[in-house]
Amino acid sequence: MSNRLFTKDTQAIFWNNNKSAIQRMLDYDYVIGREKPSVAAIVAPTSSNKFEKFFYGPDEIMVPLYRSTKEAVANHGNADVLLNFASFRTAYDVTMEALDLGDQFRVIMVTAEGIPERLARKMNQRARDNGTLIIGPATVGAITPGAFKIANIGGTIENIINSKLHRAGSAGLVTRSGGLFNELCNIISLNADGIAEGVAIGGDRFVGSVFIDNLLRMEQNPDVKYMILLGEVGGTEEYKVIEAVKSGKIKKPIIAWCIGTIAKHFSSGVQFGHAGASANAERETAEAKNAAMREVGIHVPASFNELPQKINEVYNDLRKKGVISEIEEPEIRTIPKVRKPKNFICTISDDRGEEATYAGFPISSVATPDTGKSIGDVVSLLWFKKVYPKWATDFIETVIKTVADHGPAVSGAHNAKVTARAGKSVVESLVTGLLTIGPRFGGAIDGAAKYFKYANDNDMTPAEFLAYMKKQGIPIPGIGHRIKSLRNPDKRVEGLKKFAAEHFPSTPLLDYALEVEQLTTSKKDNLILNVDGTIGILMVDMWRALGYSEKEIDEFIESGTLNSFFILGRTIGFIGHILDEKRLAMPMYRHPFDDILYDVQKAEEIK
Amino acid sequence: MAQKAIREYDGKALFAKHWHEYFDGFKYDFKSVLVTSGDELREKAKLPEYAWLNEEPLVAKPDMLFGKRGKNGLVLFKVEKPGDVKLEDAAKWIEEKQSHEVTLLSGQKGMLTHFIVEPFTPHTQDQEYYISATVVDNDDVLYMSAEGGMEVEEGWEEKVNEVRIPINMSDEEMEKAVRANVPEGIPDEAKGRFAAFAIQFFKFYRDLNFAYLEINPIVMIENNAHILDLVARLDDTAGFMMREKWGDIEFPTAFGMEDQSPEEKAIAEADAKSGASLKLTILNPEGRIWTMVAGGGASVVYADTIADLAGVKDLANYGEYSGGPTTGETQFYAETIFDLMTRYKDPRGKILIIGGAIANFTDVAKTFTGIINALEKWADKLKEHNTKIYVRRGGPNYEKGLKDIKEAAERLGLYMEVYGPETHVTDIVRMALEK
Questions:
Q1: B283 in contact with A at a CB cutoff of 8 Å?
Q2: pLDDT above 70 for A35
Q3: What is the percent of chain A where pLDDT is above 70?
Q4: Residue B191 pLDDT > 80, yes or no?
């Protein structure tokens, strides 16, 4: 692994939601038949989305989106490549933050051009100390054909296939320039069998990994049979390669050329090409470097125009010697010319196969009694896309049964009954009842979970919690009952508490709520933890025990998941009341005059 | 974008602006003016803050980024004897130097436009020290010598102590290394003071993102630092972080390159405004072969090949466009080149190379639309100059780009040969020259 830059399993975290570059990576993945997409996650600090859709061949996939590298790393421990597409203003900070996260990243690619030189040097040194390979700054990246490609390198899919970048060849390629990298790949595919690994090290003066770093790795990479180096006028990096050839550290044949022979004709002032390309001394000129490389036996053509023939010669020689053998051209998948993005996404069930599934489980495997599965199991599959343990599904079912009905007098049931008597259908009457559910009717479940969790998360004592709620001007949700009290406890609450005590691994929030109850009941006897409160609080305890993070639980509360249990359960009761009305064939309801306080003044005329 | 030279005056002004922050225990009396004529100097002398111009003996020299001014006879420090230069002498001297073109020993020539005028500092040769800092390979290097002045480069190895300061070296280690390397030639009683100054000099160089900073000589009289001559380059990529510290600093073009044409300036301005890269340098306005090449690397390869096959005299320009310029930007760039290349006749006709490697992400058809628009405007002129156009390009949407430009050339009656990635990138140069 260590001597191969990338493999077919390599995954990257892409910093910046650069959709076209990411799409190019996924197109490449599809064409070469990767199992996992090469982009595991995207970091987009200003986005509030949770994922971004991309095409994967004819289909679409979702790539998770995070607001920080830290979050992305926490969720994708196997992604060991960071593609830093931040601007020159922030690229340094992004790399340093990634390095601070430990040794997650084996390779960090930095695309920005023009990072302040001092910052680039600090960044490169820090990465070196960390044992992390930096590719760039100011680069299009690197590629291991048939395994992994960074962003835009290689250009379009058509060009990739034309230049044989979809499967491993036998050359190792290192260039400074990104545009010429593509060109070289094209030349190598026309005159040899393509490349096994290629890196464009970047055009800035201070780049993280230099020619020698990459060539030494390629020397150890069994897929690389010979190497091609395209240098530039300026700097002395090529001399390190010369030293390595001299000392025998590099034994594989190298073909090399330094561009920028033009520079000798102009004294100073003309900046040819990249920021790194400026000769400060005779030995930094392209001529001097080409001559020095030729001297130690590196294959150096007479000019760039003759580079193709040189590559062809070396390749044919290695073929003759049997170092390189014939490559079998692999099958490739093609990407449809026209692809339409999907308007809807579904992640919970699928009706396309033989039998529809709930989160991957055929309906028959959860429906009949012999499966041993209950409504709680179905809820856990369709609402949470998880198979919950029995104690949790039993609890969910208990909740649904507990909240199913609370008599005809509560506002929701009353509304449903009035509507049914007006001659409306079951569904119309039902939604009238359901629409009543909100902050005052049924909302205490959400509210209790939210406020008790907040107090508990912030280590408030029960007294502090009460003071806090008083300051907010909100009665504590889930506390208080019309008639029940400590001496006359609510049996439903008793049942839930008993179940939790017996089956929940632990109930930290309920324990806290009971402490609060002691304080509230000391003030007034009926300020007990009521059934809504108990449900909301135990749901939080359930999710905690199931391993959800506090943030995920907060999201459940925010999105109204708790209220959903009430809606689901109470639907059973509402339908009962509606059917009851239908059976009784009660007439249209009209409220009696004597139950209304009439206090109508004559309207004042405004002139 | 890279290291850019600043004027001596601006460098000294930076020292003055940040002196108290960096140079604890030293004084720097920043007396210096930058003028563009003798009259401007006379006017300055009327202002109260420049009263010293009338009162003190002066030194005047051009401030235009080139060095070796003494050897070029371009430092006025005496009329009869050192230290007798008065305001009017300096003003007249400036006028005289501006009255004709100046050729330096290096061969660079041009008109002198900027002068720095300062008080004459009487001192002896042995008070002249040398200090500079720059980046070598990946390390900062601080150079110090007890023998400053014009001759420091002769016998550099013996005279100059160097301290390598890797990027991750702590301040304590750096300070220790500097103290341990104070040049022998500095008198013992001054060594501690020199070390303290050198340490602060290095921090100033580092924090202000200098790429090169040299004071030669620096004269230290007690705790007064006299910066007699200064050369500085800034890392302009750090500009976005240094807005406060640098202020609105000027990056003048090198002397002799002074005659940057309006076209080059216009392209440089367009480049500064664009997210893409647009570069243009005119090498020989009467040259036969003009290039419009996409990509920093490819542009160099084309220039190399033209110099190899045709000779450097025929190469009219160097430049590149890259990073996905818009159609409008490309059109502007192309029109600028077409304009320039149709100004001088060549009996052999002109060659235009529209070249480029295989692009990674630049849409070739889109950029070619800009070139086609420009061709439409300049077709008659190009024909008048008997221009043969050779096109070679690959990358996203290249088939359409090549087809469009070929059609445009036929419609406009232009001679054009068009090639794609199947042809070696620079082979069109050979083809063009064999015609």
A1: yes
A2: yes
A3: 97
A4: yes
Residue A264 has pLDDT above 90, yes or no: no
Q: Which residue of A has its CA nearest to B239?
A: A116
For residue A269, the chain B residues in CB contact (below 8 A) are 253-254, 256-257
Long-range contacts of B331-334 (CB under 8 A, 24+ apart): B331/B369, B331/B370, B331/B371, B331/B373, B331/B374, B332/B270, B332/B370, B333/B267, B333/B270, B333/B278, B333/B280, B333/B292, B333/B370, B334/B292, B334/B370, B334/B371, B334/B373, B334/B374, B334/B375
Helix A211-220, helix A237-246: angle, nearest 10: 30
Is the CATH number 1.10.760.10 carried by domain A411-584? no
> What is the tens place of the pLDDT at every residue in B21-48?
999 999 999 999 999 999 999 999 999 9
pTM above 0.90, yes or no: no
Inter-chain CB proximity A262 and B307 less than 8 Å: yes
Residue B107, pLDDT > 90, answer: no
Annotated active-site residue A577? The verdict is no
User: What pLDDT does B1 receive?
Assistant: 45
Catalytic residue among A76, A166, A274, A577: A274
| CB proximity A206 to B under 8 Å | yes
Chain A CB contacts of B321 under 8 Å are none
Answer whether A186 touches B (CB < 8 Å).
Answer: yes
Q: Which residues of B, range 385-424, sit inside 8 Å of A by Cβ?
A: 394-396, 421-422, 424
Q: How close A124 comes to chain B (CA, Å)?
A: 10
B-chain residue closest to A187, CA distance:
B424
* Alpha-helical runs (H) found in A131-236: 157-162, 178-191, 211-220
Greater confidence (A2 vs B392) lies with B392
- At A35, which amino acid appears? E
Least confident range from A23-32, B90-99, B153-162: namely: B153-162
> Is the Cβ of A56 closer than 8 Å to some Cβ of chain B?
no
Residue of A nearest to B257 (CA): A269
Q: How confident is the model at residue A271 (pLDDT cuts 50, 70, 90)?
A: low
Across chain A, what does the average pLDDT equal? 93
**B317 interface with A at CB cutoff 8 Å:** no
Q: pLDDT at position A203, please? A: 86
- Which band of pLDDT confidence, cut at 50, 70 and 90, is reported for residue A278? low
Q: Considering only residues 199 to 238 of chain B, which have any Cβ-Cβ distance to chain A shorter than 8 Å?
A: 206, 209, 211, 235, 237-238
**Per-residue pLDDT for B208 more than 80?**
yes
CA dihedral B52, B56, B60, B65 (to 10 degrees): -50
Q: Are A430 and A574 contacting, i.e. CB atoms less than 8 angstroms apart? A: yes
Q: Per the CB < 8 Å rule, is A260 touching B361?
A: no
Q: Are A214 and A185 in contact (CB under 8 A)?
A: no
Q: Is omega for the bond preceding B217 within 30 degrees of 0, making it cis?
A: yes
Judged by a CB distance cut-off of 8 A, whether residue A272 touches chain B is: yes
Answer yes or no: CATH 3.40.50.261 is held by domain B262-434: yes
Q: Using a CB–CB cutoff of 8 Å, tell me whether A140 touches chain B.
A: yes
pLDDT at A1 over 80: no
Confidence of residue A39 (pLDDT cuts 50, 70, 90): very high
Contacts of A370 (CB under 8 A, 6+ apart): none
CA distance B331 to chain A (A): 21
Q: What is the pLDDT of residue A263?
A: 85
Cβ contact (<8 Å) for B357 and A233? no
Q: Residue ranges per domain, chain A?
A: 12-320, 411-584
Identify the pLDDT of residue B324: 84
Pick the CATH number of A12-320 from 3.40.1010.20, 3.40.50.261, 3.30.450.30, 3.30.70.3040: 3.40.50.261
- From the list A156, A269, A274, which residue is nearest B396 (CB)? A156
CB contact under 8 A, A274 and B296: yes
Please give the helix or strand (H or E) that residue A83 lies within, else none. Answer: strand A81-84
